[in-house]
Design goal:
heterodimer, A: about 300 residues, mainly alpha, two-stranded antiparallel ribbon, disordered C terminus, B: about 300 residues, ABC transporter involved in vitamin B12 uptake, BtuC, 11 helices, 2 strands
Chain lengths: ~300, ~300
């Protein structure tokens, strides 16, 4: 409880003592937004950690070999992740539901186990040292990025793209018959999601002095999926709230000689999917604490949240 | 090379036995039970605990391990699957709830240390352990330059026998006919007087028992039991196997298991040990992209 007490009574000291945690929350929020984009368009793609790995390794390698500035490295990592997303998306997006989930798992495992662990340039199983990492400037960059990413994703879901995605998610066939170019809009969501994950990877690599290939496997995928399921995939704030809660959970709940993280994540996955499939930020979720004067979401978007 | 092919057959048998349980649930329910790899691990872990911590014979330990998996099958059905079926949730929901259960099972075993909350279940934390060497006789033969260990050789007939029995049950018994009817169309099956919930319960329990047996065999033959054997060895390989053989097809899962064993060994021989797992996942990825119905190309509704 000290954790929450300090957050309320002394935010400045809280920020100073928990900088690393806040940075990790930020990274996970961006990753969660990446997951949100694919889920919002009705695709259970679990590929985000793979694109994150591409972003992280590219950014570090560019810094090491070309001595390019940080902004260029992160941009490079982001763009390469997006390009790979485009290549992978072309064949994979023909699959639906469970098959898409399996294919994307195959992609990340083939990428980490087959490529990253075997290339001399990525340091194989030993990982990659990143001497130019700087956790302190990293955190400001991350906080600004999180705000920007959430805002951009939120605007996207409110616009023409977002309406198309929502239509595809609710009924692909109906969307197609309404003249929505389903394949194109799915691809846009997939590539944007890859870009965001690559961006998160680039940022994360700047935070740690070491890029660990084991960070980007299926365990990470399950973690991101938990964020999205807990928060709900109807609104970008859902996965972000999920990331915020689950990343700081080990700080909030401390049990001696027992790490409750996986048990709590597991219970959350089961309980939420059974009793509250729309997530805690879905319809009727935040509504409980929404003040009366706050504008209510319009009908169309609350219907979308239920899907 | 000959030794490698033998190893491919041994490990392929375990993959096949594991994947048969995976694919059985998918065939009947259209649901991917991602807790299956945790059940696989639980079978091995409970059997190990019974032998080492409770001084039981190996036979008792096997029965105990399988019973633990049967109980876990009940948990999967009543906690993860049935409530979602009642709500007519999409199949993705069950994928997520079973991932949740898998996380809990693995975390419980992983945190089992002497004096901890789960010490009754497991006492070796995250370590990898092995059965004591003398619990089953293990003569080793040398035939034509190949080494044959009895425990590894025994896996093949045990797995094949189990898979044949399962095939017989599904094709020729009343229960099997009911199962195929539920797989074809649950609503029509229930209108014909079948207790669909009971069929599904039996399917999940059967699948979990097979997963547990596969886990015990794995622990015995590969001398590796840890909280992560399911996650690291069979979870995603099992997916690869059922995709190779065609989702929901039991003969496909058997063929896919041996095929994956062979692919891995070929990769090992051709490119060295590091690439081995990567090649398996690349095969999975390519198969889904090029031929999602699997090698046998079964129609989606003729698969059991």
């Amino acid at each position: 409880m000290d954790f929450i007490l300090q957050l309320v009574t002394d935010p400045v000291a809280f920020y100073q003592t928990h900088t690393v945690l806040i940075a990790q929350v930020g990274i996970n929020s961006i990753l969660a937004s990446s997951m949100f984009l694919v889920l919002y368009s009705g695709q259970l793609s679990l590929a985000a950690p793979g694109f994150m790995a591409i972003g992280a390794y590219t950014a570090v390698l560019m810094g090491l070999y070309w001595n390019t500035p940080l902004a260029v490295n992160i941009l490079g990592g982001t763009l390469l992740a997006g390009a790979v997303g485009l290549l992978v998306g072309l064949p994979v997006l023909r699959l639906r539901g469970v098959f898409l989930a399996i294919a994307t798992i195959g992609f990340i495992e083939a990428l980490t186990e087959g490529v990253i662990l075997n290339l001399p340039i990525t340091g194989e199983g030993l990982g990659l040292k990143n001497p130019s990492a700087d956790p302190l400037t990293g955190i400001n960059l991350i906080l600004i990025s999180v705000a920007a990413v959430i805002f951009i994703v939120w605007r996207l879901t409110r616009g023409r793209l977002g309406r198309a995605w929502a239509a595809i998610r609710q009924d692909e066939l109906a969307a197609l018959s309404q003249g929505i170019h389903v394949a194109r809009y799915k691809m846009i969501a997939f590539v944007l999601s890859a870009l965001l994950a690559g961006f998160a990877g680039g940022l994360e690599s700047h935070l740690n002095f070491y890029v660990d290939p084991n960070e980007y496997g299926v365990t990470r995928t399950v973690q991101v999926l938990t964020f999205a399921v807990l928060g709900g995939a109807g609104n970008v704030l859902g996965p972000v709230v999920g990331a915020l809660f689950l990343t700081s959970l080990p700080e909030i709940v401390r049990i001696p000689s027992f790490d409750p993280r996986d048990v709590i994540s597991g219970v959350i996955l089961i309980v939420v999917i059974i009793f509250r499939p729309q997530g805690i930020v879905g319809r009727g979720g935040l509504a409980i604490i929404r003040p009366r004067w706050w504008p209510r979401p319009n009908r169309a978007s609350s219907a979308a949240q239920a899907g | 090379m000959g030794q490698q092919v033998l190893n491919a057959i041994f490990i392929g048998s375990i993959y096949a036995l594991f994947a048969v349980g995976y694919t059985l649930v998918f065939g009947v329910l259209d649901i991917l039970n991602l807790a299956h790899s945790a059940v696989f691990m639980l079978g091995a872990a409970v059997a190990y605990s019974l032998v080492v911590n409770y001084n039981q014979s190996f036979a008792v330990a096997c029965v105990g391990g399988i019973l633990a998996c049967v109980v876990m099958g009940l948990v999967i059905e009543f906690v993860c699957l049935r409530p979602l079926r009642r709500r007519r949730a999409p199949p993705i929901a069950a994928l997520i709830s079973t991932i949740g259960l898998a996380l809990i099972i693995v975390a419980a075993v992983e945190q089992g240390r002497p004096g901890s909350l789960f010490a009754w279940l497991w006492t070796d934390g995250a370590n990898s352990v092995r059965f004591p060497p003398d619990i089953v006789p293990n003569p080793t033969w040398s035939v034509g330059g190949l080494t044959l260990e009895a425990v590894k050789v025994a896996i093949v007939p045990v797995s094949l026998l189990l898979m044949l029995v399962l095939g017989y049950v599904i094709r020729f018994t009343q229960f099997g006919r009911g199962l195929r009817a539920v797989a074809e169309n649950p609503r029509a099956a229930s209108l014909m007087g079948l207790d669909v919930d009971r069929m599904i319960l039996l399917t999940v329990v059967l699948s979990s028992a097979l997963g547990g047996i596969a886990g015990i065999l794995f622990g015995l033959a590969l001398s590796d039991i840890s909280p992560y054997i399911g996650r690291d060895n069979v979870e995603i390989r099992g997916l690869a196997v059922i995709v190779l053989g065609g989702m929901g097809s039991i003969p496909g899962a058997v063929a896919g298991g041996y095929l994956l064993g062979l692919i891995e060994v070929m990769a090992l021989v051709l490119f060295g040990s590091n690439v081995r797992t990567g090649v398996a996942f690349a095969a999975l990825f390519l198969m889904l992209v090029l031929r999602p119905q699997g090698i046998f190309g079964a129609q989606l509704h003729e698969r059991l």
